[in-house]
Amino acid sequence: MPGTELFGAEERKEINDVMETGILFRYGHDALRNNHWKAKDFEAEVKKITGAKYAHAMSSGSTAIAAALAASGIGAGDEVIVTPFTFIASVEAVLFIGALPVFAEIDETLCLSAQGIEKAITPKTKGVCLVHMCGGNAEMDSIMAVVKKHNLILVEDAGQAFASSYKGTYTGLFGKAGSYSFDFFKIATAGEGGVLVTNDEETYKKADVYSDHGHNHVGAKRGMEDHPYLGFNYRISELHAAIGLAQTRRVPGIKEKNRHNKKFLQNILSKNKNISFAKLGDEAGDSATFLNIFLPDTNSAQRVVDEFNASGVAGFDYWFLNNYHFINQWAHLKNLSTVSKLPIQVLEKPQDYNKMQLPKSQEVIGRLISFGIRCTWTEAQMTELANKISACVDKALKSVNA
Ligand SMILES: *Cc1c(COP(=O)(O)O)cnc(C)c1O
Fold first, then answer.
1. What is the pLDDT of residue 6?
2. What residues make up the domain containing 267?
3. Is 76 left (phi over 0), alpha (psi -120 to 50) or beta?
């Protein structure tokens, strides 16, 4: 979680600007705010990095992906192809806007594959919610070919992939709209926050209205603004935006350090014949927030995890057993255990979530172990970590063969 490693004077300065005027609201109050517009500046900084035409900051990555889906025209009863490996927010967003998730297969990029998407298409498919996992990027050329061939709406959850790009285009900008998360665990944090990006003016305007009770933000009097559509409150506060702004300015530097550190670890670990690495759609665009290693199979990965725990190796995730990132532990989703009825429960379920088979995704996530890259690591720390990882893999796999 690199952003939080670098929390300092710059973040405090931006927060103090807001505290001095007391204007915590992102809209209006022009005379009182001393010209501080933190949400607007945060959005401008995101546009500067990604090249997006439009960016809209919101309360979270979850609300940003929900708004991206809605503003793209996806709603009740629409089938949306989703991934079994994601932070569950992207599936919840599909469900809570009333749409129907259809799970498809991922590949070694840790993202949905073009082939997986194509196999999941039915006459009712309206869109794809593509998630760029672990700081990387999906194989966009082949995915875009399928999206175009079948005339689907693409929405990208780049919650973990801010500042990651594919052949020069930033994640989030391939489809109708995309989203980034700035929660506490991402490359940059606002405390809580998210940003929607799009190159389409109409989609941006809908997202703007949708995320603030229908307000179109035209005119000087909030209570007299026009409301072209119904919306809800997904607003970000100026305090959160202030932190997000300071943190986002650090991202180009963080990314460079991350990439250096990831390469450094990979150089050592690639000497171990039992370790390989997750693929990237485009290695040159990796934001390198995670080092993703593959073991030969699920059984050996689980033995390696046990060995890491026994030897005190920390800072890794074994997503296969994680309650929030992989479908195997999502009984609440499979059984649709909800606090109150959702559209999917009065419409037709598109898939039997308890019976569907995703063997490729099982195989890929079963042998994946991810280490969060720290941008403040020294070379000595990284050498020690890589050597420990390698030794644990040797020990765990030797006991398998014995
Ligand atoms: C973090 C994350 C989210 C949710 O973001 P929040 O800001 O925590 O709401 C959504 N999707 C993915 C892939 C994420 O990693």
1. 92
2. 252-322+361-401
3. beta
CB atoms within 10 A of CB 28: 15
pLDDT tens digits, one per residue of 358-391: 999 999 999 999 999 999 999 999 999 999 999 9
Cα separation, 245 vs 248, in Å, equals 5
Give the model's pLDDT for residue 401. Answer: 54
Answer yes or no: pTM beyond 0.85: yes
Q: Return the number of other C-beta atoms located less than 10 Å from residue 290's C-beta.
A: 23
At 399 the pLDDT is 63
- In this structure, what token pair is assigned to residue 5? 């490693």
Name which residue sits closest to atom 14 of ligand 1, judged by CA: 159
Is residue 216 a part of any domain in this protein?
Answer: yes
Residue 181 Cα to ligand 1 midpoint, Å, equals 5
89 domain-assigned: yes
Please state the atom number of ligand 1 nearest to the C-alpha of residue 86: 13
Residue 333 lies in a domain: no
- The low-confidence residues of the chain, meaning pLDDT below 50, are none
Q: Is 159 in the pocket of ligand 1 (CB under 6 A)?
A: yes
The answer to whether the CB of 165 is under 6 A from ligand 1 is no
CATH number, domain of 372, equals 3.90.1150.10
Using CA atoms, how far apart are residues 225 and 231, in angstroms rounded to an integer? 14
Can you say whether the dihedral through the CA atoms of 112, 116, 120, 121 is positive or negative?
positive
